[in-house]
Amino acid sequence: xxxxxxxxxxxxxxxxxxxxxxxxxxxxxxxxxxxxxxxxxxxxxxxxxxxxxxxxxxxxxxxxxxxxxxxxxxxxxxxxxxxxxxxxxxxxxxxxxxxxxxxxxxxxxxxxxxxxxxxxxxxxxxxxxxxxxxxxxxxxxxxxxxxxxxxxxxxxxxxxxxxxxxxxxxxxxxxxxxxxxxxxxxxxxxxxxxxxxxxxxxxxxxxxxxxxxxxxxxxxxxxxxxxxxxxxxxx
Amino acid sequence: xxxxxxxxxxxxxxxxxxxxxxxxxxxxxxxxxxxxxxxxxxxxxxxxxxxxxxxxxxxxxxxxxxxxxxxxxxxxxxxxxxxxxxxxxxxxxxxxxxxxxxxxxxxxxxxxxxxxxxxxxxxxxxxxxxxxxxxxxxxxxxxxxxxxxxxxxxxxxxxxxxxxxxxxxxxxxxxxxxxxxxxxxxxxxxxxxxxxxxxxxxxxxxxxxxxxxxxxxxxxxxxxxxxxxxxxxxxxxxxxxxxxxxxxxxxxxxxxxxxxxxxxxxxxxxxxxxxxxxxxxxxxxxxxxxxxxxxxxxxxxxxxxxxxxxxxxxxxxxxxxxxxxxxxxxxxxxxxxxxxxxxxxxxxxxxxxxxxxxxxxxxxxxxxxxxxxxxxxxxxxxxxxxxxxxxxxxxxxxxxxxxxxxxxxxxxxxxxxxxxxxxxxxxxxxxxxxxxxxxxxxxxxxxxxxxxxxxxxxxxxxxxxxxxxxxxxxxxxxxxxxxxxxxxxxxxxxxxxxxxxxxxxxxxxxxxxxxxxxxxxxxxxxxxxxxxxxxxxxxxxxxxxxxxxxxxxxxxxxxxxxxxxxxxxxxxxxxxxxxxxxxxxxxxxxxxxxxxxxxxxxxxxxxxxxxxxxxxxxxxxxxxxxxxxxxxxxxxxxxxxxxxxxxxxxxxxxxxxxxxxxxxxxxxxxxxxxxxxxxxxxxxxxxxxxxxxxxxxxxxxxxxxxxxxxxxxxxxxxxxxxx
Lengths: 235, 723
What we know:
Number of domains of chain A: 1
CATH superfamily of the largest domain in chain B: P-loop containing nucleotide triphosphate hydrolases
Structural class of chain A: alpha/beta
Strand order of the largest sheet of chain A: 3-2-4-5-1-6-7-8-9
Strand content of chain B: 25-35%
Number of helices of chain B: 17
Shape of chain B: globular
CATH class of the largest domain in chain B: Alpha Beta
Largest interface: A-B, 28 and 25 residues
Number of domains of chain B: 5
Number of helices of chain A: 7
Structural class of chain B: alpha+beta
Distance between the termini of chain B: 60 Å
CATH superfamily of chain A: P-loop containing nucleotide triphosphate hydrolases
Mean pLDDT of chain A: 85
Strand content of chain A: 15-25%
Low-confidence stretches of chain A: none
Order of helices and strands of chain A: HHEHEHHEHEHEEEEE
Oligomer: heterodimer
Number of strands of chain B: 38
Largest sheet of chain A: 9 strands, mixed
Helix content of chain B: 25-40%
Strand order of the largest sheet of chain B: 18-17-23-14-15-22-19-20
CATH topology of the largest domain in chain B: Rossmann fold
CATH topology of chain A: Rossmann fold
Number of strands of chain A: 9
Largest sheet of chain B: 8 strands, antiparallel
């Protein structure tokens, strides 16, 4: 299968449809759930889909281990390319990697200001025209409102999409029926798209619910879900 | 006897006496073969110097870039002393607490990685030196990979705990996170940075101080009050980790009857099984922690009998044979390093089985030549001592042996070969021209020696330009050899701009049908071959060239098939675009014709050569260039400059890591763009950033760059033809 066909058949098209065309530049999107549900895989799948469509991605991680992130991309690419029998997969993988940079920070020592300044440095000095930034494992639930506002402003100034994968830090957090913790709601006005992920044992699937889309706050189940085996978004 | 001879005699005599005092030779359980590996500037050579000093091998300490101008003892080459880097691994023998330790000091720069690889091949254990400030750096990752490849058990030594920003706990975490090691603290520091006083030994639960002018006096005292709780917690952590390797220790913990010996045994077991890395710490420069590290080497690293070494039996279909550390068995020896120094040619050897005596006869299984062991010596950096015999497990050196690096020497009754060592291919070449006849002679001598010593260094004369070309693993690698030619051989040479070792490849399948016909008097030549060429799919086992014979019905007689293969093999050696080898190509023949009189081996070779030349353009050839994995480390404030410099070099930024103060930028950059990068980086970052690089892969060059290369190549050829 060629890349164009793979893109057309991707379950991410249904994901975008649910979002009425996608997140859009200058906006903040959040994937939220309990720990261990598959947010990182989901985020990497979103990013890989963009890479397949020649977009430029910056993956911001706070894990302290770049190799770990790189391995996620390798694995997601492998699953997609093998699942669709992608022709000349090795060459395509090398090509799309040129459009991805992993930036790794230790959140304790590095302020949001510094993170954003490093991103700006990469975009400007590194001439890396990013289309989207994926914040993986950012502790959004304990970030200050000012920090989130700064990120939002950055997204608008740089004309990029910003996605977060978020798990609550505190153990006493209350989750609603869509897997959304109450601690995230204080930033609701700054978040453009909020998607909750929750494992449904009977269906053996991670259900994805669009909790908020732009101005509409009416939780609806999405056409896609997360396959707990492959950890990929599927229809 | 002249006065000079008397001096030499006296010196030898004193060494002999010294030797006789060291009576612990014969016991294998008291022998350790260790290496010291690390990132550049982590203080390996400084550490080696301290080891020599505490083991009474030298009587004064000289710093790497010390004001006394003497330089460190292990850095024996003049150039090394000047640049403050270690190039060749110097082997040395020391005695610590009744144990014989052979230490190989290995170079840190990635251009000299073959040296590191070779040393690891012959070692039983290693000390991995890490800087307490910089932690796990790019080169540490390379070294880690090599240690894993050769299954070398190791101790981590966190050095430079006296430096501002020192944090051994962070380094420990990095060993776990970045290298995936089960790293366990054996010590904790007493004070850090300029307040570093000593360490707490978590096994004995004592504070250890290093006193006297050079830290010679080790004083053990009760743990300072303020550190007691921390030490107790860390000890518990250590015992939990270590007890997994010893049921006895686990039981003793339950009964509250833990002894030092039980802990040491468990650590040793885990370390040798490559499942545990004990961490020791200190500051070599400030003479703190080295004696405990030596204890660690003795206590935790394996002796030669605890490591399994194998060889291939060449008389028995290369069957794997396990070598036994038994001195009664016939000897099996590996020559792992050649050096042509002031004493003549030296071959460093490791004895894997049997013992070796002066006068013994050995058999070189590569050259099939027998030779007698003349002088047998033990090396101590640049000086040496004569010995009468060396036992299995030992590292020694032989004089005047005609051999290449990596050769196996056996008892004449055996025909074993030690497993071959991994040798990477060169990525860069440089043409050198001697300035006069004398330099030309000296250059030939130097090249002869360097190519024998270092399998990653090659040299040849280009038949077209008649110039001498040297090839190696990086700019610095070649620079060092050119410099050594000047200094050690008085060979003055001029050099051109270094050239990248490009490769050529085809990008699509194309068919050929070629007839070679010649009828110009005498016997004629006739051969026709048809088939196709196609790219070989990428993959870990992908071959560089493949020939497939699909001829049916004898349209080409079977005796001419090898001729066709030979023709293609010759053709791919030099591609038409840049004159570099064509790789990843499969040549398939499926049809052809012959003439009963005019066909010959030569005719089919020529036909295959012609067929390839004809089909090459149709197969859309591309140029491949070496792309380096570059890792730049420096203060975060210069991140923008680093990004910019990579971007200007057609580089791809793979990742960047920041911890608030420093940043590490990993990128993939074509080698052709990296020439002179060290100077550029220095000026961009006020000399505060450094970089390392190694070959990542070969990638297609962009069309524009490729066209420019082809144009330059054609230009060069025209000039050469005009000459």
